[in-house]
Design goal:
281 residues, alpha/beta, Oxidized Rhodanese, domain 1, 2 domains, five-stranded parallel sheet, four-stranded parallel sheet, 10 helices, 28% helix, 11% strand
Length: 281
Amino acid sequence: MAYTTLMPTDVLAAHFGDPSWAVVDCRFTLADEAWGEREYLARHIPGAAYAHLDRDLSGPRTFRNGRHPLPDVSTLRRAVGRLGIANGMQVVAYDQDSGMFASRLWWLLRWLGHDTVAVLDGGVARWLAEGRQTSSGEEHRAAREFAGIARTDMVVGADGVQARMAQADWRLVDARTPERYRGDSEPIDRVAGHIPGAINHCFQWNLDEQGRFRPPEGLRTRFRDTIGDVAPEHIICYCGSGVTACHDLLALEHAGVRGAKLYPGSWSEWSSDPSRAVERS
């Protein structure tokens, strides 16, 4: 069975040592960019390789293209190969708990045409709470050849957002917290607020009280309440830098709402240009 959205912990535990599976630790925090790697070295799920958000899952910053721009396709292919991932393998990505960072790798692999990738539901926090096995130190999977072609229909740039933000049959979905969406506070980017016309669906709303993703029917109801009746391929998700928006995209996919797109530059790119409109509410 192929897993393309979420992975239960017991299923992953049952596949230790399976050469057709690849596990990737994506733990990260914006407050300390070395934290995730330190945690990985101290304790991680056996067999996992580590992927760093800045080094492996993002491209170079120009300070006009957002805080976590998409990597160049050929560079990303090489990074994926270094993680021991080949086409056709089942990939499992995890982070500390919510899937906030693991969903970035999930989306990037799908962008390159690799659909057999899932996020570990509950992350390493749930894994540890269940008393499951861990390893320490750095682990290396044998490098593999990875061939992937970017799916251009999964991405919308700033100009595309500008062209669609006033169209009634499109929805811009902001995955940030309500405070940042409204413009009450902005701890990271230069301007507070949101893209005009965007509606707020905070990524944390995709999770239940235990920090696991809500069931598909619950997600569908919540997204319907937020987005209304719009074609899935007319949904564009963004956040601060194109990371937590992938969480909304994962939740939509898990809910069976397929075809939504990512604005990779997100608010950090949009707000870097003073000519672009900003809305606060």
